[in-house]
Amino acid sequence: MTCRSLQVNSQEEWQNASQWLKDRAKSSSEVEAKVSEIIARVQNEGDAALIAYTSQFDCHDFKSPLCLTEHEISLAAASIPPEDRDRIYRAADNIRAFHENQKEKSWFITQSDGTILGQRVLPVDAVGLYVPGGQGGNTPLISTLLMNAIPAQTAGVTRIAICTPPRKDGTINPHILAAAHLLGIEEIYRVGGAWSIAALAYGTESIAPVDVIAGPGNIFVTTAKRLVQGKVGIDMIAGPSEVLVLADGSANLEYLAADLLSQAEHDPLASAIVITTDKHLADDLPAELDRQCATLPRAEIASRSLQDWGAVVLVPTMKLAIDIANAIAPEHLEVATRNPWAILPSIRHAGAIFLGHNSPEPLGDYYAGPNHVLPTMGTARFSEALSVQTFCKKSSIIAASPSFLNASIEDVAALARLEGLEAHARSVEVRSQH
After folding, report:
1. CA–CA separation, 291 and 429 (whole Å)
2. Which is catalytic among the residues 266, 332, 357, 372?
3. Looking at the chain, which terminus has fewer C-beta neighbours within 10 angstroms, N or C?
4. Is 331 a catalytic residue?
5. pLDDT digits over 261-319, tens only?
6. What is the CATH number of domain 46-234?
7. Would the pTM of this model clear 0.90, i.e. be above it?
8. Catalytic residue among 242, 265, 288, 331
9. For the chain, how big is the Rg over CA atoms in Å?
């Protein structure tokens, strides 16, 4: 395995040296065409299309019903080891405690003339969650379910529907069902892929449409979410995973390599970069990455990721390291320095920030509490983690007093006529005649 080693002395040099990263953002018109066809078929054929696609890609002799029964869910939940159930409980408690602090309240202000203005915050009525199967259902993405469902529940959403692809035998991994059972979610469908996103957006005989769709997936699922956005809300358009680490001489070489590999093993398109001011660390890290990578079950994936999208970047100052980090705007940013809190005020763009040598990214993925559904591919410049707000909507409230209306009529009418909207002007003026 060969991981890029770069020495960069300015932001201009970084811009020239980092052109290779831009290729991660390439999209495929071929994928979009296929997904458009899938969406149209689901709209026209409903459940029949879902069964056909599921039979083709997931379970050869798949048959309806799509929806699991409450009894099937509870049986599966009871079948997992008690220690696994306890771990899910503890992770869920941490995630819920964090998201409870994100809740926003409706508010009202009363002006001196009696006019009342305000904002009302309400949850959406229905949410659809996509939970990937994970290697044919053998690596259940429990954390994905928890990270999406708990914020929706905290927001107050009353209907949560889960779509997840079945295994080859038509069943769902019991760990997924146990997590749903723990959360009290009973609407679970044995269907995945882009066709499940279409079903959640437009509805079929078995699946009622939702208001917001959340959850990660492959390029087909992600493209489907992008194409149905507007018909429904979505959490975000997420790309492959990425981590960037800022490190000085206090960083532990073994820790750094392990943290970079924790992202590289996700996907050949995952990106793992360390930017350091320490030459010894920069010189020694590639060999430590090779040593640890060779022992991983997913060594081939991690190796490909590091070859194509990984880098060890040596810079003269931490200021330059921070400037490059802000330019990249990574999904995960680890600050492995002597005084990470001193660096935090300078970090402007990152999905999640992990401070200090005891805050590895996987701690956030599974357990600490903050959400692991994060903006990727530089979108942290303008977007944020999935949160309680993802599943809420806000309405403005206006209750004008007679005196406020009368004092405003002339200004409102004049502004309306400047825009050529005579009926707007008359709407306020007519009230001055009574």
Report:
1. 78
2. 332
3. C
4. yes
5. 999 999 999 999 999 999 999 999 999 999 999 999 999 999 999 999 999 999 999 99
6. 3.40.50.1980
7. yes
8. 331
9. 25
